[in-house]
Sequence to fold (321 residues):
Amino acid sequence: MMSADNHTVFYPVTYILTGIPGTEESHFWIAIPFCLMYIVTVFGNSLLLFIILTGRSLHEPMYLFVSMLATVDLLLSTTTVPKMLAVFWFRAGEISFAACLTQMFFIHASFIAESAILLAMAFDRYVAICDPLRYTIILTKSVIGKMGLAVVTRSFCIILPLIVLMKQLKFCRTNLLPHTYCEHMVIARLACNNNTVNVWYGLAVAILVIGLDAVLIALSYGLILRTVFRLTSKDARLKALRTCSSHLCVILMFHISSVFSYYAHRFGHIIPGYILILLANLCVLIPPMLNPIVYGVTRKEILKRVIYVFHRWCRGSSLLS
Fold:
């Protein structure tokens, strides 16, 4: 330890996640719906992956992108929720500095990856509707594999500097984190030296990366709508719009939660802290839980495959009994 600016500067070995401040007596009960949402998330996304990977008819570009999205949703929820439940139920909030940075890396990398996958899915719908004759030529499995690799590489390259910048900070206030998971801005606020670079880099990622993805998605759907409304057949227009409905629902869920997360840190002094943290938890719980439900309900091919799998499972169970 060393003294600087009348503060004790230290490099924390561990942090302690305190959960949602002001709601300690309700932590046990808050965790119950969180646990149920996590179970639905794991089951739904695992089933979706199984359905897509085992169904040859679903080995199409759109469904391969859906499987990437399900993988990212599993990563995000599994990175955050088990520790969240441990904090709520067992007061097991202790987490090492290295583990905290690792969790922070995967949380933010998951958001960046999900944004890129939604952009890839928008491009997929653009090609399918605006240039259908070249769809299978443009979106080959090789191209989709390269797009998946680009998603992973981009996420790694964008978030790694954030971790490096975080390791440069000196901490002098406390090792108590008033949150349920290691969030970038929450940790940065504990620093006693200048954290301006960290703050601005985080803002740049939110605005330039996710914001740019949102603009490109909007542009894709603008071109899609222009093509759709030029179709002479009403049935063709409805069919084209239906193919985009599930994707639009997922885009709205993701970007609404992203916008909330961004503005929550800007106006955190206005809204009570416990509400911000509760809503931040819902932002990492609700989209991963609802995504497989949206695709399962709106995509007939997936729904048929789910029904077929459950029918076979029920038949197998009845034969064994």
Residues 14-303 form a domain with the Rhopdopsin 7-helix transmembrane proteins fold (CATH 1.20.1070.10). The two ends are 66 Å apart (CA to CA). The first strand starts at residue 2 and ends at 4.
